[in-house]
């Protein structure tokens, strides 16, 4: 893969290895680095063989980068409201020589339909803020607060806009806290998205799930398939074999 030699790094930034298909990613602890949630969503989502994909709240572009390993025939776009994160995402596309396949945009998810139009996408993904604006301790550093709390964007905003962006039969895939599952399903149906597949993520065996991966189809018929649960840690702090393969040994076959 061609990688430009002179992608500028700003203060506090570093280049990390994404551990898949030789991808690299610019990150900084001064803003919000991608987490396991993003990795799992990028693997869970039904990436089409061709068409257009939109990643809302894309941050530094980790999810589009990882999804690009799964299909050569799609154009993947990302939308980020925070200028610094958008700039990192834009440089990450250049760093990996993927500017012909990934496009980054600066803008507000709530205005996405005005920016992109109705029914333009085959898949929408989102790793949205998890916590209501009034809950928990809101971090004083805006990058973290906006990423974690529904300050600029609510769950309903995400699902409403996703429905508007999708063509009929298109899919939306989300990762969220398991405690919000009923809210997610209720809002999906309210906005004409039928939940089609779901997977719960448990930290360890015999613990409650803390994450849910869920995908719905715009205009789909009722039928939800529940995948086997993912148990993150099997013994101590050691990842389960599936996660180990995703992080360290998985090589996607491009279609």
Word description of this protein:
The chain has helices spanning 36-44, 62-67, 83-95, 112-116, 142-148, 155-165, 181-190, 241-249, and strands at residues 13-17, 24-28, 51-56, 74-80, 102-106, 121-126, 166-177, 193-202, 211-218, 225-226, 230-231, 233-235, 238-239. With 255 residues, it is an alpha/beta fold. It has a single domain (13-249), classed as Vaccinia Virus protein VP39 (Rossmann fold). The strands form three sheets. Strands 3, 4, 5, 6, 7, 8, 9, 10 and 11 form a nine-stranded mixed beta sheet that branches. Strands 1-2 form a two-stranded antiparallel sheet. A two-stranded antiparallel ribbon has the order 12-13. A hairpin with a 6-residue loop joins strand 1 (13-17) and strand 2. Mean pLDDT is 88; it is low at 143-150 and 250-255.
Entry summary:
This protein has 255 residues and is α/β, with parallel strands linked by helices. It has eight helices and 13 strands.
SS class: alpha/beta
| Largest sheet features | 9 strands, mixed
Query: CATH class, anyone?
Result: Alpha Beta
Strand content: 25-35%
CATH architecture name: 3-Layer(aba) Sandwich
Radius of gyration: 17 Å
Q: Tell me the count of domains.
A: 1
Write down how many β-strands occur, each being a DSSP E stretch of 2 or more residues. 13
CATH superfamily: Vaccinia Virus protein VP39
Order of helices and strands: EEHEHEHEHEHHEHEEEEEEH
The geometry reads as globular
End-to-end distance: 17 Å
Mean pLDDT across every amino acid position: 88
Low-confidence regions: 143-150, 250-255
Number of helices: 8
């Amino acid at each position: 893969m061609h990688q430009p030699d002179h992608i500028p790094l700003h203060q506090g930034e570093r280049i990390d290895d994404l551990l898949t298909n030789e991808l690299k990613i610019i990150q900084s602890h001064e803003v919000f680095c991608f987490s396991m949630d993003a990795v799992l969503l990028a693997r869970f989502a039904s990436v089409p063989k061709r068409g257009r994909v939109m990643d809302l709240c894309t941050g530094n572009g980790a999810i589009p980068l990882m999804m690009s390993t799964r299909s050569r025939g799609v154009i993947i776009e990302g939308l980020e409201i925070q200028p610094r994160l958008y700039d990192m995402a834009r440089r990450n596309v250049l760093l990996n020589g993927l500017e012909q396949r990934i496009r980054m945009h600066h803008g507000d998810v709530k205005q996405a339909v005005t920016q992109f139009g109705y029914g333009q996408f085959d898949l929408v993904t989102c790793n949205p803020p998890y916590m209501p604006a009034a809950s928990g301790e809101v971090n004083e550093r805006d990058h973290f607060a906006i990423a974690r709390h529904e300050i600029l964007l609510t769950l309903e905003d995400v699902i409403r806009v996703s429905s508007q962006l999708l063509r009929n039969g298109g899919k939306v895939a989300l990762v969220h806290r398991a405690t919000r599952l009923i809210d997610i399903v209720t809002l999906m149906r309210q906005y004409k998205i039928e939940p089609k597949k779901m997977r719960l993520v448990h930290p360890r065996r015999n613990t409650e799930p803390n994450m849910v991966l869920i995908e719905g189809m715009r205009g789909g018929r009722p039928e939800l398939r529940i995948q086997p649960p993912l148990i993150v840690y099997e013994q101590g702090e050691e990842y389960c074999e599936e996660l180990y393969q995703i992080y360290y040994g998985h090589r996607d076959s491009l279609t």
